[in-house]
Automatic annotation (TrEMBL):
Protein name: Phosphotransferase enzyme family protein
Keywords for this protein: Transferase
Signal sequence segment: none
Molecular function via GO: transferase activity
Origin superkingdom: Bacteria
Residue span(s) of domain Aminoglycoside phosphotransferase: 50-288
Keyword Transferase: yes
Keyword ATP-binding: no
SUPFAM superfamilies: Protein kinase-like (PK-like)
């Protein structure tokens, strides 16, 4: 996904000459996304300020749009977005929000193509600061995990019944591919990004280890339902100890909830198995059902291996130049901690 965003942002900068769209384009987007067609003409007569959103590696594709009192998040999906998929995501999130989950970032109105056929979407700007993965605090983590469990319960009833499938089989296939076809990179990449060195050296061995750990679960049938798909700590916004925002559903898909639990627990624990089990325990309490902790551990390891491979490819192809270098390095260090534990 970062690869796609990076390519798109470069093209978008060529179109507009800057990361911020022209005033004419901004006004047309405001009128369509905040105008009469969607939520009663909020944009009419107001002066809106656009600023790039911060806090994540994909933040440059999201703008905060505010008049000083009311704020919105405007996201550009780029050209060629899958409209059917976005419609499914939007309707699913609106259902979840209408069920009482005020912290869900649900789209407002229909998406809108600007003059360059780039697709835009708006949500309310949700308050709070991202959950910290570097300063683990049990009370805040418990609150965030409880919110994830409530979101899963709400999303589950958007379908008559969860279906079953072998989504872990696809992950195993991707990990096995790394054993025979690791990403290509050169020494200049490792010179520019020394944090990649250990990841590159260990990748094949780590892929072998992840494949062995994941294999027993790959052919098992798992209940599938809509999940967040990228349940990283930075997508959980906290304010005064409460979950105020669950954001960035661009990777939303039908999968086992274990995938979300493993992503969040893995990135919060950074290789600490006891801490990962604590996070999973919080989820079990909130969801009132047990989790297969061995499967969570296998998914965490596989996810770290696949993330390492993705960064080797992206940085080798110089696809991450649009992102904050320190954020990239933080991500690389976090992946290494999960793999080296």
């Amino acid at each position: 996904m970062l690869n796609q965003i990076s390519h798109y942002l470069a093209a978008y900068e060529d179109l507009y000459g800057a990361m911020l769209p022209t005033e004419a384009i901004r006004r047309s987007i405001e009128d369509r996304l905040l105008g009469r067609e969607s939520i009663g003409g909020i944009a009419a007569g107001r002066s809106w300020e656009w600023t790039p959103a911060s806090g994540g590696l994909s933040g440059a594709s999201v703008w905060r749009v505010t008049d000083g009192k009311q704020g919105f998040a405007f996201r550009c999906w780029g050209k060629g977005a899958d409209l059917a998929r976005l419609a499914w995501i939007s309707s699913t999130l609106r259902f979840a929000k209408s069920s009482g989950l005020a912290f869900i970032a649900a789209p407002i109105g229909p998406p809108f193509h600007d003059a360059h056929e780039c697709l835009w979407e708006a949500t309310a700007w949700l308050p709070g600061e991202p959950l910290s993965e570097s300063a683990y605090e049990s009370t805040a983590v418990r609150e965030a995990v409880s919110g994830l469990a409530r979101a899963h319960q709400s999303l589950m009833v958007t379908e008559a019944q969860p279906t079953s499938g072998r989504t872990l089989e696809e992950r195993l296939s991707r990990v096995l591919t790394l054993q025979s076809t690791p990403p290509l990179f050169d020494l200049s990449t490792l010179t520019a990004w020394p944090e990649l060195g250990e990841l590159a050296v260990r990748l094949t061995a780590d892929a072998n280890r992840a494949a062995k750990q994941l294999a027993p679960f790959a052919l098992r049938e798992w209940d599938l339902q809509p999940i967040h798909g990228d349940a990283r700590p930075e997508h959980f916004l906290m304010s005064e100890g409460k979950l105020t925002g669950l954001i960035d559903f661009g990777a939303m898909r039908r999968d086992t909830v274990l995938a979300d639990v493993a992503r969040l627990a893995g990135e919060l624990s950074l290789g600490d198995a006891a801490r990962r089990d604590e996070v999973v325990g919080f989820y079990e309490t909130a969801a009132e059902r047990p989790m297969d902790r061995a499967a969570v551990a296998a998914l965490d390891l596989a996810g770290a291996v696949l993330s390492a491979a993705n960064w080797l490819r992206w940085l080798g192809e110089k696809q991450a130049e649009s992102f904050d270098a320190e954020l990239v390095r933080q991500r690389l260090r976090a992946i290494a901690a999960r793999l080296l534990a």
